[in-house]
Amino acid sequence: MPKITASKPIKKSKDDSYTSQQITVLEGLEPVRKRPGMYIGNTAGEGLHHLIWEVIDNSIDEAMAGFCNEITVTLLPDRMISVIDNGRGIPVDIHKQAKKSALELVLTKLHAGGKFGDGGYKVSGGLHGVGVSVVNALSEYTKAEVRRDGKIWVQEYNRGKPLKLVRPVGNTKEHGTTITFKPDAEIFTVLEYNFETILDHVRQQSYLTKGVKINVLDKRSKDNTDAYAFYFEGGIASYVKFLNHHVEAKHENVFYIEKEDQDTNVEVALQYTNEYKENIFAFANNILNPEGGTHLIGFRTALTRSINNYARKQGFIKDKDESLSGEDSREGLTAVISIKIMNPQFEGQTKAKLGNAEVKPIVDAIVYDALNTWLEEHPRDGEAIVGKCLLAQRARVAARAARDTVLRKGAFEGLTLPGKLADCSSRDATRSEIYIVEGDSAGGSAKQGRDREFQAILPLRGKILNVEKSRLDRLLANNEIKSLVIALGTNIGELFDISKLRYHRIIIMTDADVDGSHIRTLLLTLFYRHFPDLIRQGHLFIAQPPLYGVKRGKELTWIYSDAELEEYKKKYKITDESIAIVEKSDETDDETTTETEAESADDTKTEKTPKLSIQRYKGLGEMNPDQLWDTTMDPAQRIMKQVTVEDGAKADEVFDILMGSDVAPRKQFIHSHAKSVKNLDI
């Protein structure tokens, strides 16, 4: 029996220095500069771009209120950003309570704006009213220019503090607001904007706010200006067509409905494709809700009821007890749900999920009635949709049988775990990790080099099935995927349960060649399509084994990229002509060794530098177990990349291009990038 030792009582300190004087009160925008991550997520690239989103959101709010129809976003030299709209312009008159201009109040106070009381905005995406003030706080320089009441009003700021009072600087007949800012180098670790990221965000906002033109200009280069303009009269119906442009649609017409009920505007568009996955994007007040919410629940309920109703009415389903499930009715579906609501209630500051209970029945009723009518009016489209859903139902039944077979077989094969799995001894999932490795050779090195306490190894033989082109029943017929599903413990499909995950770090570790890259892509496709929650909750990683081992005398240096190798060669003045890089293979264990000369300090003599050998590792199996541990598996030294999803629509498009059934986009990609490929392994 273990010995239980009573803890010692804590001695009372005689130090009275902890008093009210140690309580810090942060005024104005100080909390934002002190804890920027609380307001913009992080101070890296994501947070940097979030500053632009906050300013654009204010202009979009003006558009949704009906006062703005054009917005211009401009990237300027010296890291400056400008956002111009032709809305009403931020008020500049003196606020009665604050005794200062409303413009200064909005730019310098958190939770100050027209989104909390009556008369400002009926619908707003910037729910918390902190957007533009946060941008001001985190910028070295900000300039607000307002055109209203026949005058141009200006105020400038330094790190959130006004430099002068709000003042008129000229006359104008125009109206609107211009916010120009320069992100603070003291705050952000990344200061370079990604133009493609901005274009993707603006394109999405344009689809969601139909009839509004948004211009994006890149003027960072004096010699060249990139200019784009987005305007979609069709709104989210056009968005659905865009999302499906690289896949084959099951029916020609896009279902679309926009209707308002109880001060809630509901806009829904959908179209089925020949794909197997569902692709649904839910928005509330133009804010993407990746975890859905009550509007998504209402939509799904209405969709399943409506399709079942139509299938029975048309005689496609004759058994009264037979019904299409929600999963059946959503296979291959691309849909966008966008609602506008007066008082949105989001779960958490990130606004990932909508919580308004009253929204569900409103969306349910509107979509159900409209979809019933649409199916009756488009019988050919209706027949194609129901046929797709019935095929999905048959596949689901087959997949369930296959999944049950996998689980039953696993139960008879030793505590449900596959024989090829080298499990860890720990049963604490939060400490445990599993390496998915390529082949028996790499698996052998990994098994010998690992820490058996918390590291499990699962070697895969060959390439797994491309799940982008396969349903779940065919997927589970693949032995390698079976082993992986059993090892993870979460099950798959409708029975997926993340609480049963056996390892909280799932690490893909493949060779640094073409085959390794292909296997990694196949595994990423599997996780993205069938285990998305593992990615969302941060459980999936990619190991980064070294590309080169460089011996200089007795000193061994591990190098992880070609760029790092170039830096190493510059440091020791090594020329390409003086070295040869050897790739170790089964046929030879040789390494190329070269002697290089370097000038001595007095510039009159030369001395021999230590012998230099550079070996390129194509396969993990070429490494000794201790080398694999030191470079790739030791938590104290290893480098790993965590897999995340920043843009769901973009990720779907990439997987479709790389792994989908349409070959043309891949051919175009190869033709476009063939000349830039170096050291191609064939």
CATH class division of the largest domain: Alpha Beta
Using the 3D structure, state the CATH architecture of the largest domain. 2-Layer Sandwich
Mean pLDDT metric:
83
Count of runs of 4 or more consecutive helical residues: 20
What would you report as the Rg, rounded to the nearest angstrom?
Answer: 30 Å
CATH topology of the largest domain: Heat Shock Protein 90
Question: Which spans have pLDDT < 50 for at least 5 consecutive residues?
Answer: 1-13, 18-26, 115-119, 410-415, 585-606
Concise synopsis of the structure shown:
With 682 residues, the protein is of the alpha+beta class.
Provide structural commentary:
- There is one protein chain.
- The protein is α+β, with helices and mostly antiparallel strands.
- The longest helix has 34 residues, at 379-412.
- It is globular, with a radius of gyration of 30 Å.
Main features:
682 residues; alpha+beta; Heat Shock Protein 90; Ribosomal Protein S5, domain 2; Rossmann fold; 4 domains; nine-stranded mixed β-sheet; five-stranded mixed β-sheet; 26 strands; 34% helix; 20% strand; disordered N terminus
What order do the helices and strands come in, and which of them pair?
Layout (H helix, E strand, L loop, with lengths): L29 H5 L2 H4 L4 H20 L5 E6 L5 E5 L16 H7 L22 H7 L1 E10 L2 E8 L2 E2 L4 E5 L4 E8 L11 H14 L4 E6 L7 E5 L5 H8 L11 E7 L2 E9 L6 E6 L2 E2 L5 H20 L12 H5 L2 E8 L18 H19 L1 H34 L20 E6 H11 L5 E6 L11 H4 L3 H10 L16 E5 L4 H17 L1 H5 L3 E4 L4 E5 L2 E5 L2 H10 L10 E2 L9 E2 L2 E3 L6 E3 L3 E5 L8 H9 L6 E3 L5 H12 L4 H10 L9
Parallel strand pairs: 1-8, 12-14, 15-16, 15-17, 17-18, 21-25
Antiparallel strand pairs: 1-2, 2-7, 3-4, 3-7, 4-5, 4-6, 8-9, 10-11, 11-14, 12-13, 18-26, 19-20, 19-25, 22-25, 23-24
Helix pairs in contact: 3-5, 3-6, 8-10, 8-11, 12-18
